Amino acid sequence: MTSDNVTDGQPDPAAVAGEHRLSQQVERTGMFGTGTTGDTSGYGELRVRRPDQPATPRPYGSYFDEVADELAAGLERGGGTFPEAVSQVVVDRGELTLHVPREHLVAVARLLRDEPSLAFEMCLGVSGVHYPWDAGRELHAVYPLLSITHNRRIRLEVTAPDADPRIPSLVGVYPTCDWHERETWDFFGVVFEGHPALTRIEMPDDWKGHPQRKDYPLGGIPVEYRGATIPPPEDRRSYS
Amino acid sequence: MGLEEALPSGILLTTVEKVAGYARKSSVWPATFGLACCAIELFEAGGPRHDLARFGMERASATPRQADLMIVAGRVSQKMGPVLRQIYDQMADPKWVISMGVCASSGGMFNNYAIVQGVDHIVPVDIYLPGCPPRPEMLLDAIVKLHDKIQNMKLGADRKAEIEELEQARLRRLPLVVQGTGQTGIGDQGPHGALPAPLPTDHGEPETGADHGEPQRGERS
Amino acid sequence: MTAEAEGRVYDVGGQDWDQVVAAAVETAEERLVVNMGPQHPSTHGVLRLILTLDGETVTELRPVIGYLHTGIEKNMEFRTWTQGVTFCTRADYLAPLFNEAAYCLAVERLLGIEREVPQRATVLRVLLMELNRISSHLTAIGTFGLELGASTVFLYGMREREKVLDLFELITGLRMNHAYIRPGGVSQDLPHGALEALREFLRVMPRLLGELRALLDANPIYLARTKNVAYLDLTGCMALGVTGPVLRGTGLPWDLRKSQPYCGYETYEFDVPTQATSDAYGRYLVRMDEMDESLKIISQCVDRLAAKRPKDDPVMISDPKIGWPARLAVGPDGLGNSADHIAHIMGQSMEALIHHFKLVTEGFRVPVGQVYTAVESPRGELGCHAVSDGGTRPYRVHLRDPSFNNLQALSAMAEGGMVADVISAVASLDPVLGGVDR
What we know:
Largest sheet of chain A: 6 strands, mixed
Oligomer: heterotrimer
Radius of gyration of chain C: 24 Å
Radius of gyration of chain A: 22 Å
Order of helices and strands of chain C: EEHEEEHHHHHEEHHHHHHEEHHEEEHHHH
Number of helices of chain C: 18
Structural class of chain C: alpha+beta
Shape of chain C: globular
Shape of chain A: globular
Mean pLDDT of chain A: 83
Low-confidence stretches of chain C: none
Strand content of chain C: 5-15%
Number of helices of chain A: 6
Distance between the termini of chain A: 32 Å
Order of helices and strands of chain A: HEEHEEHHEEHEEEEEHEEE
């Protein structure tokens, strides 16, 4: 098969993409998601692989190129470089995501806020996401930024491994992140270094565990009726 | 406690019960325990269209010390549970509880780590009102039913007799949960329990003849 | 009484008032820490405020939240994308349609069907969102009055709100928490009589709003309690990320409906009201003006809905793999699948039956990706960050609720003022704890 990939000296892009896809991690098998229910569909051998999100090549389109260029210029003025501070740029569905390594988060955010041509005055909070299968990059913190001056939106995404869930706090740059970071700590266990008072905000103060992580159960109880019991949502048959 | 507690059973006590019941039900002061969406329907019930004032209930006392009725309106989270109990404890007798909405009655659509699955885990409930949220008219219906209950509440010696009678009836009633084992006895074949063991035969003499209203246990599983 | 590092702690349990007074007399300490809430009529829900008082002045204010945390976001990960609407709608329960709209716009962007949502569905969304804006502002102003002691304002607000709730019931079937806006469109079309009811509503509302204004606009007590109270200027708002009427009360005309329009808002004629006083009174005026603007938008919606319709004018996307399959109708036993639809799937089309089955049990699959969509809810920018892993259930949905954000500004607004101004500050921020805690 591999010999067919090379036609007139160039590897067949479709075959290369197929091989790349086959090397991705298997996300789920069979037609039904949970392993507890009997799969009688005949699709038991189905292997659904997790697609990765490749970086978008230039040009990004709309105002994203301008933002990237201004950010690069600002970083260079400060002595850094764009590829070092932004590990990946993804443009998807009309939205720009800058993947920033956590060491550079505060610097990039400060630049985005202070540079007049960028002027992202508002940070709309922190949204945590937990990808337990992404070894080394399990915890993601997503910061949507808004520029009122230029009427633009972008997104910063920072990752941290489960073994070392620390991300620098943006409270010094965007004070509004105070409660949002407390919430992300509460629900995901991400420690924001430099936060003035990182305590639980939604759960009771003595709660154990971080509820919105994927390894934390939903915690439902079976619902009792007269003559029947319905299992809680996380134990019911799932289709994905 | 009062004169009514010292009277012996009889026509005098019955009359006192009626008067006391009428007085109590005509001026129930709700303690505002509006938590979530049901609280908004509670506001609407106090509004001009569905008027709580016609029952004498528009004076909602924020302080539980002066309140008679706690309408738990909304979902009770784990953090709020102790607060709920504290407010209930601060209310003076006689007090009643309406759990308004499915979240208060049973946890509602939120069957998860954060919500107490029914406030009857925390406080004794007199009226359960389903709905998500229940319309103000449904709340008024629950309140009217509660007024019935209050009106017909027995006092003193009559109350003691009533409690005895209710307890006997409950003991004779067939339970949903097998006593002592914690297993549900009917049809629990889900992932959370195996088929139940046969029931112990201590649920009294089988009723002969007419009374076959209750389903015969042990035949369905 | 215990002696702590920061001062003495008095645990007032009841019937010990004389002890408390004696202890307070003997201590020279002037500061007093008071706990307000979580059960208190003057908080918009279960909000707990810990005030440090120096006499009547608030020196420190700490809000404690989490008493209504429901785990809505985690719950949504265990339901299909369409079922998620019923959960997110209960987050900010005074503006349920905005929650639904933000979430459905996110799902539609993930699906890539933003342009295929039917025009009529978009107009219905705008109509209901503006009606919801009116009902939310009426509640805000009504409870504002109630907390200040003006119970007539509360009753007026509730009375007006009943009219809006009647319209909701007529159009969506429910007074609150509608689950009407769904990914791909809305659940059902306008019933008969809705347009007349809307026109009647538009006819009577201006006068009723005028009555509300007459009660408050020039009321000296109201002015004394809200003018120059809870001051937060533009710098403060920017630093704290505050949006909505609070931001517009500082003079900045930032409204997502104008700046980053969604659902066709760029085609409607309306203004963005602002005030420049940055105080509680300014925010009240902004809310009143916004209600007038909403009436304008509703009138334009009604004209569009009443216009001559093309033959095929659905309210749900026509893609059979995504659009909610049932055409609902009111039958002898209430609202349910219409008889035509049942006949179609049972008698005429096997494929339609399969689609119906798959969509209802499994739901549609959404391609991998993440989006952030935002709508202008009555309290500010309500955003939805949705992450999909390619399945029939959301991988993660995070609702960026404006009240959660705006409540952080409470300390900045109320510290340095008097205790009574704390109530005004909370009420002028208009937080809804369901959205704050989710």
